[in-house]
Amino acid sequence: MAATNAATDIGFMTQFGKVVGAVFTPFAEITDFTPPGTSRDSVDFTHFGSPDYFREFKPGIADGGEASVTYNLVPGLLDDAAIAAHFDTRAVDTWRIVFPNGAKL
Question: Tell me, what DSSP letter sits at residue 104?
Answer without folding.
Answer: B
